[in-house]
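Researcher: Here's a chain I'd like modeled. Treat it as a single chain, no partners, no ligands.
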Amino acid sequence: MNLALAGMLAGMALGFAGYFGGFAAFLLVAALGAVGFVLGRVLEGDLDLRDLGDLLRSRDRRR
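Model: Modeled as a single isolated chain. Structure tokens:
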């Protein structure tokens, strides 16, 4: 599945969640989609977990 099709499906899911479930459902679907995206990248090997740890550290600890 290419990235354009995945984006279209995610947009449709967000649209349906927002229409039928309200704003809270929209936020839930968006958060779960973001988590799924990151986990998918990690499992494919495109993203290293150490890269995510660098984002969470303060600037003083990065050195």
